[in-house]
């Protein structure tokens, strides 16, 4: 099996998409959730299946019948709106969080102006005056599309690496 | 064996306080109390293992935990559900680490001993003659969980072989399980794996929070009021009944100010209503027509909620069961199952699942805020002022809501003691009195005699 490192995607496009991901993380890490919503296409599909421990070599351990998120733009808007209320206690006082995005790999998508984007994430969170910090990590498989000159997230599949999550809740968007 | 004891004087003080509706806060995360709880409660009482629809075919298995006891639950070749200690009988190694799967034999990765679905030792690497003389394999099967019984598809295990039957233990709760789990011809089914995460919490607090405390809804979940999803009326979660049952079990039947629900049968498809009416008694059907939310628990560490949840304009009902698996005095691994009627249309099941993800479980917007309060309780419970066992500081939690004036409603159609509001600490008090009875049974050390 040979592997071509030429992805047929120009450096210019790669640069734009990478910047898009970094800007998205910045919005999430700085409570700019409404700005983040603007990055999502109206037909967004946003899912986070569970990971499971399976026996065997090379078995698919993504649990397709079990999820943490299965969202549309409308349901994400409800989640975001909640974060602007005074009584979403899990985020008031707000947590401090960072989305570290790396290992970005970009390929041509199935449609014109669409690209498949694979990235790794390391999410870290600090809350209150607790010295312990929380983390989550995994992979995101995205599709981004250039719509009227603006990049939009069309679909995201978040794959956590843990089967038992170690964050005390999952109030974060990933 | 280490025998733990509690001073008689301390027990008397605790009982006196509890009789006044007060629970000293230090007991929540005290490490010695925690060890007593493992011995006196979790080694004696029935704990939920899973639902029969998680084991569809012969050979299907799941792995579970009863606090620190690893459990391998299988459907054997005869279609019977069996549960074993998930530990090789040779050197004790955890036998199977997969969450679920299908197998005929389980082989230990340490020395290769293997077991069939009946827990029999069926293979020893290099033959059993290496042991000197032929070993009696029958003596070395997997150790069965002493008791495994089920009710309405809900499988429970118990580590005490002398325990009462599951049906006796569930007692009055069976009548309510019959409604929630038995309304459809083909019962309920679990979708997917249970979600699992580790919360900063004590199991007593989570069991109380979920099973016995609708009073928290108006503040903890106030964000839903701010968003216009829940009513402004601070009493909105109080309408209905709180039902106190045997053994610390109980539930809240929440209706509305009018005593009726906006949507009959919790917004299940109208096509299913005649089936519900056929499967339920007249009294049960009457409650099912009026209820908005069932929320309650089976002591010690199983809670459930059956709500009506709106997802983008559509209303859905589902059943969520959760086990609070203690990992220590201040840590709980939550196992959260989604259940829906097998007979419901597939599209309804999908939408209800999405509604569940939006409200409960680690990503659920309601549960997220609960995790915050659970953590805030354990984070302060080690305080010196809380630990003061002479109670000079009077660091007690208040369970006085309705203590003096809310009397049972004798006209409530279901079994148990029903109070005509859910803003009442009757069930919480009962749970903690029961807790005190259990941990002090045969552990009281007589002093000053």
TrEMBL record, chain A:
Source species, domain of life: Bacteria
Pfam families, alphabetized: Ring_hydroxyl_B (PF00866)
Oxidoreductase is among the record's keywords: yes
Family annotation (Gene3D superfamilies): 3.10.450.50
GO biological process: 3-phenylpropionate catabolic process
NCBIfam families per the UniProt record, alphabetical: PRK10069.1
Family stated for the protein in its record: Belongs to the bacterial ring-hydroxylating dioxygenase beta subunit family.
Name this protein carries in UniProt: Aromatic-ring-hydroxylating dioxygenase subunit beta
Species of the source: Salipaludibacillus neizhouensis
UniProtKB/TrEMBL annotation, chain B:
The organism's taxonomic lineage, starting at the top: Bacteria, Bacillati, Bacillota, Bacilli, Bacillales
Species: Salipaludibacillus neizhouensis
Protein name, as recorded: 3-phenylpropionate dioxygenase
Residue ranges of domain Rieske in the record: 47-157
Family, per entry: Belongs to the bacterial ring-hydroxylating dioxygenase alpha subunit family.
Alphabetical keyword list: 2Fe-2S, Aromatic hydrocarbons catabolism, Dioxygenase, Iron, Iron-sulfur, Metal-binding, NAD, Oxidoreductase
UniProt-listed Gene3D superfamilies: Naphthalene 1,2-dioxygenase Alpha Subunit, Chain A, domain 1, Rieske [2Fe-2S] iron-sulphur domain
A molecular function (GO) term: dioxygenase activity
SUPFAM superfamilies linked: Bet v1-like (SSF55961), ISP domain (SSF50022)
Taxonomy, superkingdom: Bacteria
């Amino acid at each position: 099996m040979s592997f071509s490192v030429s992805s047929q995607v120009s450096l210019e496009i790669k640069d734009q998409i990478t910047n898009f991901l970094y800007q998205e993380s910045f919005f999430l890490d700085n409570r700019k959730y409404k700005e983040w919503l603007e990055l999502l296409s109206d037909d967004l599909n946003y899912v986070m299946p569970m990971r499971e421990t399976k026996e065997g070599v090379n078995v698919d351990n993504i649990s397709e019948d079990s999820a943490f998120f299965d969202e549309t733009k409308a349901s994400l808007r409800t989640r975001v709106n909640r974060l602007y209320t005074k009584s979403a206690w899990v985020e008031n006082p707000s947590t401090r969080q960072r989305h570290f995005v790396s290992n970005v790999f970009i390929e041509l998508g199935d449609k014109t102006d669409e690209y498949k984007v694979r990235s790794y994430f390391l999410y870290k969170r600090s809350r209150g005056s607790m010295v312990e910090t929380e983390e989550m990590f995994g992979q995101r498989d995205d599709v981004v599309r250039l719509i009227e000159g603006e990049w939009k997230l069309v679909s995201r599949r978040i794959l956590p690496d843990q089967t038992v999550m170690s964050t005390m809740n999952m109030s974060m968007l990933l | 064996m280490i025998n733990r004891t509690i001073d008689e004087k301390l027990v008397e003080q605790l009982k006196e306080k509890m009789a006044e509706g007060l629970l000293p806060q230090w007991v929540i995360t005290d490490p010695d109390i925690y060890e007593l709880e493992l011995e006196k409660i979790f080694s004696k009482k029935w704990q939920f293992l899973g639902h029969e629809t998680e084991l569809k075919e012969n050979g299907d298995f799941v792995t579970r935990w009863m606090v620190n006891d690893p459990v391998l639950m299988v459907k054997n070749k005869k279609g019977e559900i069996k549960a074993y200690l998930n530990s090789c009988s040779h050197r004790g190694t955890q036998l199977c680490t997969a969450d679920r799967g299908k197998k005929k034999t389980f082989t230990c990765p340490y020395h290769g001993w293997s077991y069939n679905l009946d827990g029999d030792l069926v293979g020893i690497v290099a033959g059993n003659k290496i042991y000197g003389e032929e070993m009696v394999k029958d003596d070395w099967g997997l150790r069965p969980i002493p008791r495994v019984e089920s009710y309405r598809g809900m499988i429970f295990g118990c580590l005490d072989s002398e325990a009462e039957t599951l049906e006796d233990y569930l007692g009055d709760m069976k009548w309510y399980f019959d409604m929630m789990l038995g309304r459809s011809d083909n019962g309920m089914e679990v979708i997917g794996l249970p979600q699992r995460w580790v919360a900063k919490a004590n199991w007593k607090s989570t069991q109380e929070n979920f099973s016995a405390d609708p009073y928290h809804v108006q503040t903890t979940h106030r964000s839903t009021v701010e968003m216009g999803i829940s009513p402004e009326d601070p009493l909105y979660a109080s309408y209905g009944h709180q039902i106190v049952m045997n053994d610390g079990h109980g539930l809240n039947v929440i209706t509305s100010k009018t005593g009726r629900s906006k949507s009959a049968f919790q917004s299940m498809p109208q096509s299913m209503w005649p089936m519900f009416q056929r499967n339920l008694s007249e009294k049960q059907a009457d409650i099912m027509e009026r209820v908005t939310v069932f929320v309650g628990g089976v002591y010690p560490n199983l809670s459930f909620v059956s709500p009506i949840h709106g997802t983008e304009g559509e209303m859905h009902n589902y059943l969520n069961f959760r086990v609070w698996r203690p990992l220590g005095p201040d840590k709980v691994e939550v196992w959260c199952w989604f259940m829906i009627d097998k007979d419901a249309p597939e599209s309804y099941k999908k939408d209800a699942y999405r509604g569940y993800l939006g409200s409960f479980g680690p990503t659920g917007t309601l549960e997220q805020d609960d995790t915050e309060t659970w953590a805030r309780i354990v984070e302060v419970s080690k305080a010196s002022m809380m630990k003061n066992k002479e109670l000079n500081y009077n660091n007690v939690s208040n369970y006085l809501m309705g203590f003096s004036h809310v009397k049972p409603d004798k006209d409530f159609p279901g079994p148990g003691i029903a109070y005509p509001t859910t803003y009442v600490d009757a069930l919480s008090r009962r749970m903690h009195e029961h807790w005190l009875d259990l941990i002090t049974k045969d552990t009281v050390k007589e002093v000053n005699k």
